Structures are given as C-alpha cells and as structure tokens.
C-alpha cells in the first residue's frame, strides 16, 4: 500500500519559485509537508506548526535536521488563508561523521535519485510525499501527534494571567516522553505575542540518564532553552548558545538510576533547588519541563513518587492509557497537580537501537567543535580521537592536576584500576570548598595500582558518591592512556569544553569512573576512516560509469594513499578461521 507522509505535492501553482538552494512554496489550510535531510524554513505569510512550535514571519529561519533514524518533523499550515514558506538548504559538517562510524550512514536525503530535477539534486533536503520517493527504500515515518496529545498541550499552556506550568512527562520506555517534552517546550517558546512577552525561555530538567536531550548518557542536567528544538539529541550533544544554556549537571555514571537510586534523587533535588534559586534571583516567568526516565515499576515507581514530592509540579503527563500500578499511584497522589493521560506515541521502525543512539550521541559529543561566534551553527570535526592532542593530567605528588579518582558502585581492586580506567569514559567533576571530605590525603596510592590516587572503599565494599550540593559535572573525558613512568593520564575532552578545562583548579577536581558503555566507537574510528578514504579516492578517480566524477566531496580527506597508520588499539590477527583473507580486526584498549 502507498504510505503518504505529506499531503502537499509540488505543482506549478503551489511552487512559487525554486533555485539550486531551495524553493518558495504555498500551502493550503491543514496541508502538511515533510522533508528528509537538513534545511532551514521561514514563514513568509500565514502560520504553521512545526514540532509543536507555532511559527509566524516574526520567528525568522528555523534550522531543522531530519535524519532517517527518527520521525520526520511535519510542517502543517494552520492559517485559514494558507501560508507561504521559504525552505532552503543549509551547510553542515555532521555528515562527515559517517567516515568515522557506519551508524551515521544513510541518515539524510539521497542525491542519487534520477527523477530529481538537476537543481534539486544539490539540495540538502528532499520532499517526501510517499515512501517510494526515497531511493534507499528506508522505512521512513513522520511525526504523528494524536489529538489527545494536542488537547493536553493546549490545556497545559497558560493564558497570560495564569501561572506558568511546571510539567513532567512520564511513562514506560518508548511511549513518547521525550517527544512530548519537545512538543510542549517548543509550544511554550512560541506562544502568541501576548503570552510570549513574559516567557523568554523554558527550563528543561532532564532526569533520563539513558536517553538525555542535551548531553551524552550517564548524567542529569538543568538546561535553559532559548529557541525551539526540532532535532534528535545526537545533533545537539551538549547545550550551546544561542540555542540553550547549560546551568548545572551531575554525573550519574550509568544509563539508569538503578545503580544508586538515592544518589539519583539527591542529584534531582539539587537541580530543582538550583532552578528555584535562578527563578527567584532573576524574577523570571519561565516554565519548567521535566523529562523523566522510563523506569516506572518497582523501585522506579518509588523514585517517580519521590520526584513528584520534590518538584511541586502543576501538570503530569502520563504517556500510556494502559492500566498499571504507576497510573493508580499517580491518580491517588493527583490532588496537587493535573493529571493528563494520553496514548502512547505512534512509532515506526527503529533504525537504531537505544544503545546505538547513545553511541552516536557520545561520538557526536567528542567531535563537536567549539565556535567563537555564538550565532554560528554547530560544527563537527572528523579527525579521529587517536590524532587529537590529549590533555596531560599529572597525578603525581608534585603539583598534581587532580585530587584523585573516585569509582562509583562496587569497589574495584587497586591492582585492576589502571586496566579498567584506561580507555574508559570518565566524568570530570568540580568539588566545592565546602566539601571537607576531600583533600590530597583522602586518596590512597599503592604501587600495584600504578600509584593512581583513588578513594579507597575496601572496608565498606562500595564508594559513597559525591554530594551533589557540593559538586557539579564539568565535562566527560576519554582516558586515552596512562603514562605510569611520568605519573600522568592522557585524556581527550570535547573541544566545546576547552574553556571550562582552563578554569579548573587542581584542589577541586576529581575524576569519577562509572559504568557507562565501553566506547567501542572510539577504538575503530581510524579503521572506518581508512575504509572511507580508500572508497572515496576510488570514486574520485572513476565514477560509476567509468568517468571521472567531479561531484565527490573530498573535504577533510587525505589526497595520498597508504598514509593511515594502524590504530594503536586495533590489532590485526592472522590465522586459520579468522575471516576473509585470513585476517580480522580485534578491539584493544588505548595504549601508550
């Protein structure tokens, strides 16, 4: 059967003009248009809704990245007299990451479509009317907003005279919590002029460490949003101006609150108190949107009920109509808030697993470039982390750069610490002067552990986590290697956090090791880049028809052959049964 994603199709009447950059189009009332790829859209006349945001000419260009891995945003005309839009291509560097990871492959519009007009082949987006419009035949699907979702959004959004909402989206996994949080935040940021005059930002309290919105996995955070968000998390792996401002974050060290529920609740409480302090100090009329984790049974339900007591919410949105103990508990405690029960989000085929999406977000986080102009678009660097100049962190007794290392969860034997730490992702945490637990003498050193300063917990069997009131996460880092001879760690930090790193004080800095996913993506970047480079050089020399292809982009690709050295953590093994040509790849930790 034909599956229609857009009700709008291009004709001579509704396409005002088109160039090699994009087109001006006209939509009728309630018509929808869906694009795959990267584009900027501006309303010239009328009103549209895009991912919950109500957009008018005053809002200017909105940048949208619509990859095939997620539901494609729908542009819908909501003005009775129609709307005129400008949709144009936009430059980006996120596509480069495909050369470092196959997970970034086939995300965008296919330019091999022979049916496209020559000018449209240069666009960074493609209008998708039917699934058959995609040459790759991917199982694309568009964002569907059920009528009950729209009703809940309209009830939650305040009138000018009403208090601003504090709303939480909660429910089981994969029911649409994150999607609803984006929809309601976008709506609040683009409300009518009368209501919008006193709402210039929305605070997002992200309490889902497994699928966070503005950070990699393993942390909870408070972010101030200034502009609507139309893009998947791996396209904004960290909050940045002018889009959003990170206010405070805590390292959970895990993809779930299960590892230490009490510490998780303490971190959430600290973020709530920080939000209240900011609101009180700046006297802002700013709403709060809370994205809760999908763990809602057993201990997860107890955590959820604790959060409800702490947050003083005005509205709770439960993203499934199925009966459950969680729903019963929410209804029993519903005197202090309005409970909105909505159906689960209609979802399509999952092109990436939750683990793969976390991997994409972590890779994006470490490769995002720092930009000097806050108005600039985010950019990504395709240089493998093995070629990045690391920070050298001295942990010796003479002028150390850190207080020490803290391991979360069960105790790690000191002899195993160097092995586990090497090649892992850690949190760089700043500790306040008020925390009297830590000093240089607090941390233990011994020869079998490489003299690494660590917080010993062999007596209790587990390490007490940092007090969130006296600490905050600065950045994640990848431990590239341990130089035992010089007693230093080599760590890779995202370029976006270089300024924060320069402000760290040794007597206030600790490294925290949790139980995050092993960063296998970092160990294979050189291998994938070499494969990509060889393939692109071959395409460059000879097109599919045997001719030289001038359109193959070689930006960032070495012109020479054979210059890629084997990655230090990837080993080639020969032997019987080891794969094609008797060779295979094996992962290995970072080495000096």
Automatic annotation (TrEMBL):
<dbReference type="InterPro" id="IPR045116">
    <property type="entry name" value="Clp1/Grc3"/>
</dbReference>
<feature type="domain" description="Clp1 P-loop">
    <location>
        <begin position="171"/>
        <end position="368"/>
    </location>
</feature>
<dbReference type="GO" id="GO:0005524">
    <property type="term" value="F:ATP binding"/>
</dbReference>
<keyword id="KW-0418">Kinase</keyword>
<keyword id="KW-0808">Transferase</keyword>
<protein>
    <recommendedName>
        <fullName>Polynucleotide 5'-hydroxyl-kinase GRC3</fullName>
    </recommendedName>
</protein>
<dbReference type="GO" id="GO:0005634">
    <property type="term" value="C:nucleus"/>
</dbReference>
<comment type="similarity">
    <text>Belongs to the Clp1 family. NOL9/GRC3 subfamily.</text>
</comment>
<feature type="compositionally biased region" description="Acidic residues">
    <location>
        <begin position="547"/>
        <end position="557"/>
    </location>
</feature>
<dbReference type="InterPro" id="IPR027417">
    <property type="entry name" value="P-loop_NTPase"/>
</dbReference>
<feature type="region of interest" description="Disordered">
    <location>
        <begin position="541"/>
        <end position="565"/>
    </location>
</feature>
<dbReference type="InterPro" id="IPR032319">
    <property type="entry name" value="CLP1_P"/>
</dbReference>
<dbReference type="Pfam" id="PF16575">
    <property type="entry name" value="CLP1_P"/>
</dbReference>
<keyword id="KW-0547">Nucleotide-binding</keyword>
<dbReference type="GO" id="GO:0051731">
    <property type="term" value="F:polynucleotide 5'-hydroxyl-kinase activity"/>
</dbReference>
<keyword id="KW-0067">ATP-binding</keyword>
<comment type="function">
    <text>Polynucleotide 5'-kinase involved in rRNA processing.</text>
</comment>
<dbReference type="GO" id="GO:0000448">
    <property type="term" value="P:cleavage in ITS2 between 5.8S rRNA and LSU-rRNA of tricistronic rRNA transcript (SSU-rRNA, 5.8S rRNA, LSU-rRNA)"/>
</dbReference>
């Amino acid at each position: 059967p034909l599956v229609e994603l857009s009700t709008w199709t291009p004709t001579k009447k509704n396409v005002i003009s088109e160039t090699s950059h994009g087109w001006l189009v006209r939509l009728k009332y309630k018509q929808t248009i869906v694009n795959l790829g990267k584009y900027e859209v501006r309303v010239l006349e009328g009103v549209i809704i895009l991912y919950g945001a109500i957009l008018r000419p005053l809002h200017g260009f909105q940048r949208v990245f619509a990859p095939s891995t997620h539901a494609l945003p729908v542009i819908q005309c909501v003005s009775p007299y129609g709307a005129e839009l400008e949709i144009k291509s936009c430059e980006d560097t996120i596509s480069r990451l495909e050369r470092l990871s196959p997970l970034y492959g086939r995300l965008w519009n296919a330019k091999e479509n022979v049916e496209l007009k020559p000018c449209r082949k240069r666009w960074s987006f493609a209008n998708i009317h039917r699934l058959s419009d995609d040459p790759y035949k991917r199982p694309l699907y568009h964002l569907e907003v059920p009528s009950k979702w729209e009703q809940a959004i309209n009830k939650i959004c305040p009138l000018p005279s009403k208090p601003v909402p504090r709303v939480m989206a909660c429910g089981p996994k994969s029911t649409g919590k994150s999607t609803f949080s984006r929809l309601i935040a976008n709506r609040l940021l683009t409300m009518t002029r009368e209501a919008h005059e006193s709402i210039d930002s929305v605070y997002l309290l992200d309490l889902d460490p497994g699928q966070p919105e503005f950070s990699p996995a393993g942390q909870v955070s408070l972010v101030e949003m200034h502009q609507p968000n139309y893009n998947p998390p791996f396209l904004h792996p960290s909050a940045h101006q002018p889009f959003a401002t990170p206010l405070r974050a805590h390292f959970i060290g895990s993809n779930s609150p299960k590892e230490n529920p009490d510490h998780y609740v303490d971190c959430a409480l600290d973020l709530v108190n920080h939000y209240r302090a900011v609101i009180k100090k700046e006297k802002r009329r700013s709403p709060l949107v809370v994205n809760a984790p999908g763990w809602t049974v057993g201990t997860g339900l107890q955590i959820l009920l604790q959060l409800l007591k702490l947050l003083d919410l005005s509205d709770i949105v439960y993203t499934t109509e199925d009966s459950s103990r969680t729903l019963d508990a929410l209804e029993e405690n519903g005197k202090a808030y309005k409970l909105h029960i909505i159906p689960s989000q209609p979802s399509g085929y999952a092109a990436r697993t939750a683990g793969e999406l976390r991997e994409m977000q972590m890779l994006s986080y470490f490769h995002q470039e720092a930009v000097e102009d806050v108005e600039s678009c985010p950019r990504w660097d395709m240089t493998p982390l093995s070629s990045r100049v690391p920070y050298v962190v001295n942990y010796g007794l003479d002028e150390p750069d850190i207080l020490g290392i803290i391991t979360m969860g069960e105790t790690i034997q000191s002899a195993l610490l160097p092995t586990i730490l090497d090649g892992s992702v850690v949190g760089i945490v700043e500790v306040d002067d008020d925390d009297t637990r830590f000093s240089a003498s607090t941390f233990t050193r011994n020869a079998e552990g490489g003299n690494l300063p660590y917080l010993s917990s062999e007596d209790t069997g587990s390490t007490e986590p940092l007090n969130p009131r006296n600490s905050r996460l600065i950045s994640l880092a990848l431990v590239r290697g341990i130089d035992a001879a010089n007693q230093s760690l080599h760590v890779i930090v995202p370029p976006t956090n270089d300024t924060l790193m320069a402000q760290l004080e040794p007597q206030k800095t600790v490294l925290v090791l949790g139980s995050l996913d092993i960063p296998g993506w970092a160990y294979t970047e050189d291998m994938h880049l070499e494969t990509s480079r060889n393939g692109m050089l071959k395409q460059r020399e000879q097109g599919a028809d045997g001719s030289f292809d001038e359109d193959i982009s070689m930006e960032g690709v070495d012109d020479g052959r054979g210059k890629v050295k084997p990655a230090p953590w990837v080993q080639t093994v020969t032997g019987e049964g080891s794969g094609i040509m008797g060779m295979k790849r094996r992962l290995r930790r970072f080495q000096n």
